[in-house]
């Protein structure tokens, strides 16, 4: 935002300085020209009176243009102001050719006219200047008429095209530059808005993932621990009813003990499912490396882990999700793929993390494409705002690719 503001301020400052320059130049040429004319000796003070009068009239007209800016007054007002100023400048040059320097300043005034009038203003100024200095064709008896006409028209044409064309190109370039700055400013605003929306979506995805995880844990507790505890209570109550007969109570007590052991096993399994052991004291790359090595030793299939990009500490939810994807994918390879080699790639990008698990096995066919493990994998990754893609074909191996947002650990 600061860079954009600086650029806009620079453009505005340049426009302001140019407006000041265009307004000041005629004054800096009018007053010295008038002073030089008035410093010349004259036989009749009427000439100086005319000089002062014309100079005052031009100054008043220019001052009126400053008080009521003609630049933004539309083509009609701008054209009228310029035409009157050029007529007064011509009168000054007719009175004394030293005012030719002031008339040159009207080229700058023509630049700020609406562009169709720019050529007209430059051409009119050029005609006034060269008529004063060269005279109309045919007025010089020592030079052939055609030669005078050629020089007169040629100089005015070249000057009009060169100066007018340059002024129009510069004006158009300035307008395009301003339009580009406006477009860049709008684009930056859109990017900032998109970044805010992206952050909001990530937050919603995290909340959805947490909700999914709570619901999953609720199902786990209901389907395992709650049922196990209900069974234990039922068996203990049955034992209490036949407590006076030890032989009748013992089977209920034994069954309650078995249910307690099973519930304890399920509880440990659920806790392990929440956070893999490998991620307790290490980050995702190290955890995947350890798991991949053990998987290789256990299944005798060549595998390797490649980590690319600049590593960052990710949110535990992201690391667990990616680890479970790798775990499920390698489990499927061991069960079904009959592969000779597996490659695991973990890539850190600017705003996403990609996990690829590729094997050279027999590929997935039929119902295996829609198995429970793959559905669970997709749900887990979708819960943190990511996506899973599976590419496979009979005899062509399988590639499981998971892409998730690179949510840093400090953002959770």
Account of the protein in words:
The protein folds into three domains: 2-134, no CATH class; 217-274; 277-411, Histidine kinase-like ATPase, C-terminal domain (Heat Shock Protein 90, 2-Layer Sandwich), CATH 3.30.565. It has a five-stranded mixed beta sheet, with helices on one face. The protein is rod-shaped. The chain is an alpha+beta fold and 412 residues long. 70% of the residues lie in helices and 9% in strands. It is built from eleven helices and five strands.
Nutshell version of this structure?
With 412 residues, the protein is an alpha+beta fold. It has helices at 2-39, 45-67, 74-95, 100-104, 106-111, 115-134, 145-241, 246-274, 284-299, 316-337, 372-382, and strands at residues 302-308, 341-348, 352-359, 387-392, 398-405. The longest helix is centred in the middle third of the chain and has 97 residues, at 145-241.
């Amino acid at each position: 935002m600061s860079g954009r503001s600086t650029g806009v301020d620079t453009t505005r400052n340049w426009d302001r300085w140019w407006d000041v320059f265009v307004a000041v130049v005629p004054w800096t040429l009018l007053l010295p020209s008038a002073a030089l004319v008035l410093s010349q000796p004259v036989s009749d003070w009427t000439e100086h009176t005319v000089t002062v009068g014309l100079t005052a009239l031009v100054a008043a007209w220019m001052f009126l243009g400053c008080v009521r800016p003609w630049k933004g007054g539309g083509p009609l007002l701008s054209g009228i102001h310029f035409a009157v100023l050029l007529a007064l400048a011509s009168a000054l040059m007719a009175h004394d050719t030293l005012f030719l320097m002031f008339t040159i300043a009207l080229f700058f005034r023509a630049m700020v006219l609406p562009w169709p009038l720019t050529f007209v203003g430059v051409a009119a100024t050029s005609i006034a200047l060269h008529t004063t200095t060269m005279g109309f064709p045919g007025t010089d008896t020592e030079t052939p008429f055609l030669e005078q006409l050629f020089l007169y028209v040629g100089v005015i044409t070249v000057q009009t095209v060169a100066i007018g064309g340059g002024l129009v190109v510069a004006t158009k370039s300035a307008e395009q530059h301003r339009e580009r700055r406006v477009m860049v400013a709008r684009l930056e605003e859109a990017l900032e808005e998109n970044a805010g929306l992206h952050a909001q979506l990530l937050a919603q995805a995290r909340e959805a993932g947490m909700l999914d995880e709570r619901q999953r844990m609720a199902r786990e507790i209901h389907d395992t621990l709650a049922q196990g505890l209900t069974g234990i209570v039922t068996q203990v109550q049955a034992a209490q009813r036949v407590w006076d007969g030890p032989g009748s109570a013992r089977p209920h007590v034994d069954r309650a003990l078995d249910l307690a052991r099973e519930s304890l096993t399920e509880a440990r399994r659920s806790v392990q499912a929440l956070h893999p052991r490998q991620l307790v004291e290490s980050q995702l790359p190290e955890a995947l490396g350890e798991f991949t090595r053990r998987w290789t030793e256990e299944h005798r299939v060549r595998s390797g882990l490649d980590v690319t990009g600049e590593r960052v500490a990710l949110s535990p939810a992201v690391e667990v999700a990616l680890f479970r994807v790798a775990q499920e994918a390698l489990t499927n390879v061991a069960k079904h793929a009959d592969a000779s080699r597996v490659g695991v790639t973990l890539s850190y990008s600017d705003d996403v993390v990609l996990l690829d698990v590729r094997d050279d096995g027999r590929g997935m066919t039929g119902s295996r494409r829609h198995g429970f493990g793959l559905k669970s994998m997709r749900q887990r990754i979708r819960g943190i705002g990511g996506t899973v893609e599976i590419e496979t074909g009979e005899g062509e191996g399988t590639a499981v690719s998971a892409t998730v947002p690179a949510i840093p650990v400090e953002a959770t």
